[in-house]
């Protein structure tokens, strides 16, 4: 075990105890040093006359010279063979992790850890200690925002326990916060939580400091970040400036990081939640009570009191009317003339199939754009799986088919004649098999091929035989049975149906005379 090194102040304390007549045993009992160490110190003190109370205490320089610090044993580092390479990379500004990856990539026998590399850099003196500036914010100047991992709650659809997240917005001056438990970190959730937080505070701040999560920043870059279009639109509406942190630098939003830890440590443990609404109700009660009225460790005052006395009046007024919460996105138009957005389906013109379109989803309507041209608009779906369809977006031939409903068939059959109307009505009334395709076949192909009069006659014959089938009607027309004698009616008389221009037909009178002349 390494020997314990005493500081200059500890030597002074021990000498003061010895000059007061305290024994080595009592000094050792106080934990200042071991009895062997105390004997060595006492020998030096007696030799130099330091225990004489009439003389002043030795100066620090004299103590330091009499009790020099033992040299620290330095073991040879496993990184010594890479010293020149490591020094060069460190001087060029590369981080320990970058140097570690390069060494591991370039040397197959490299086995040191990142910690060993950091200690080696410290020994070389190339890793200088860093200092940080504490930022101070005026009332209403800024808020910091972040997400944390929430409790598991029963999913309202499946009932299974599902992991949640909680959103936190902390006002930088007063440390008053708003928090909300949510199911996801989607753009729409991000915007809704911002709106709820600003409504809760009763005003807006001038800047919102955020991390580089995808709901807010599409490309993280400290000098040239790309802001999510939906969030940019929201910020303009509420009048605050977005301030993304430097990537992988959580200390830049230390206030909300502390707030997230505080919610995790002080609110979540040992609480029971029945569902999401219950969890959020308990959370807001906790913020307005225990959290808001605690003495904050840094400001040394209650967050709610600081908010009420200084920050609330400094917030910017909320805009009137409230800006619409808009979500932007892109999606490809599928072969069915619909694109998918938020698990619902919206139609767009068929000429744009396979093209990627821009979506602007407001609170009431969804608009679809091809570049700057608006090509479709629909009421926003209220639940997943909903179809929003404009029939005009389909190809014309598909639209024509969609419009041929049973009611259309009955109207067309009525134009042909009463027998056709009755036949189609009975056909569509089939309780077992859907007969719309059969009705469309009759009123499209058969009508077009044989004409109104023959179709009407064929329907009459099929009705007489009570054979209400498409195949039966087609067979009657193909074999010309629509021109054959009908079944006897209720009077017992036969009826004949003749063609418009009969051929090879004798006069009925001459036929009867010929029959009589034969004597039969």
Give your account of this protein's structure.
Helix content is 41%, strand content 15%. It is an alpha+beta fold and 520 residues long. Among the domains are: 59 residues; 39 residues, no CATH class; 173 residues, Nucleotidyltransferase, domain 5; 74 residues, no CATH class. A hairpin with a 6-residue loop joins strand 1 and strand 2. Helix 1 crosses helix 3, helix 14 runs antiparallel to helix 15 and helix 15 crosses helix 16. The radius of gyration is 46 Å and the shape is elongated. The termini are far apart. The C terminus is likely disordered.
How are strands sequenced across the largest beta sheet? 3-2-1-4-7
- Spatial shape: elongated
- Computed CA radius of gyration, to the nearest angstrom: 46 Å
The CATH homologous superfamily of the domain at 142-314 corresponds to Ribonuclease H-like superfamily/Ribonuclease H
Quickly give the CATH architecture of the domain at 142-314. Answer: 2-Layer Sandwich
CATH topology of the domain at 142-314: Nucleotidyltransferase, domain 5
Number of helices: 18
Largest pleated sheet: 5 strands, mixed
The proportion of residues forming helix, as a percent range, comes to 40-55%
CATH class assignment of the domain at 142-314: Alpha Beta
Write down how many β-strands occur, each being a DSSP E stretch of 2 or more residues: 14
Unreliable residue runs: 494-505, 514-520
User: How large is the share of residues in beta strands?
Assistant: 15-25%
Mean pLDDT figure:
84
In angstroms, what separates the terminal alpha carbons? 146 Å
Oligomeric status of the shown chains?
single chain
Class from secondary-structure proportions: alpha+beta
């Amino acid at each position: 075990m390494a020997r314990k090194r005493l500081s200059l102040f500890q030597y002074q304390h021990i000498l003061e105890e010895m000059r007061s007549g305290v024994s080595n045993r009592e000094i050792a009992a106080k934990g200042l040093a071991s009895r062997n160490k105390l004997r060595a110190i006492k020998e030096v003190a007696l030799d130099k006359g330091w225990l004489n109370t009439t003389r002043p205490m030795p100066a620090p320089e004299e103590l330091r010279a009499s009790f020099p610090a033992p040299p620290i044993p330095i073991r040879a580092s496993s990184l010594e063979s890479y010293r020149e390479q490591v020094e060069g990379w460190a001087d060029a500004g590369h981080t320990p992790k970058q140097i570690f990856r390069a060494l591991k990539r370039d040397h197959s026998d490299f086995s040191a850890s990142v910690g060993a590399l950091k200690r080696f850099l410290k020994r070389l003196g190339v890793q200088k200690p860093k200092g940080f500036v504490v930022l101070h914010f005026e009332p209403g100047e800024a808020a910091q925002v972040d997400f944390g991992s929430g409790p598991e709650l029963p999913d309202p659809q499946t009932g299974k326990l599902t992991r949640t997240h909680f959103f936190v917005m902390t006002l930088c001056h007063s440390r008053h916060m708003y928090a909300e438990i949510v199911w996801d970190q989607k753009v729409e959730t991000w915007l809704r939580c911002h709106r709820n937080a600003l409504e809760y505070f009763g005003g807006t701040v001038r800047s919102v400091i955020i991390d580089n999560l995808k709901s807010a920043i599409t490309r993280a870059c400290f000098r040239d970040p790309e802001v999510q279009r939906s969030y940019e639109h929201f910020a303009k509406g509420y009048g605050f400036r977005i301030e993304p942190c430097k990537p992988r630098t959580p200390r830049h939003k230390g206030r909300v990081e502390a707030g997230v830890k505080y919610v995790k440590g002080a609110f979540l443990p040992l609480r029971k939640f029945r569902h999401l609404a219950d969890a959020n109700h308990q959370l807001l009660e906790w913020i307005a009570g225990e959290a808001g009225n605690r003495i904050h460790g840094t400001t040394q005052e209650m967050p709610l009191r600081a908010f009420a006395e200084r920050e609330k009046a400094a917030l910017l007024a909320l805009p009137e009317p409230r800006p619409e919460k808009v979500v932007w996105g892109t999606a490809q138009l599928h072969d069915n003339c619909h694109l998918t957005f938020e698990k619902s389906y919206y139609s767009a013109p068929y000429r744009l199939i396979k093209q990627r379109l821009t979506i602007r989803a407001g609170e009431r309507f969804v608009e679809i754009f091809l570049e700057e041209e608006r090509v479709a608009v629909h009421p926003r779906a209220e639940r997943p799986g909903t179809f929003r369809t404009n029939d005009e977006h389909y190809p014309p031939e598909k639209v024509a088919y969609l419009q041929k409903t049973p009611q259309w068939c009955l109207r067309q059959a009525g134009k042909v004649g009463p027998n056709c109307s009755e036949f189609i009505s009975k056909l569509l009334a089939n309780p077992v098999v859907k007969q719309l395709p059969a009705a469309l076949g009759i009123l499209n192909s058969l009508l077009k091929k044989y004409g109104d009069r023959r179709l009407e006659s064929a329907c009459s014959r099929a009705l007489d035989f009570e054979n209400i089938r498409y195949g039966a009607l087609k067979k009657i027309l193909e074999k010309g049975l629509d021109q054959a004698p009908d079944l006897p009616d209720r009077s017992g008389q036969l009826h004949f149906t003749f063609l418009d221009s009969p051929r090879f037909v004798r006069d009925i009178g001459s036929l009867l005379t010929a029959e009589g002349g034969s004597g039969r």
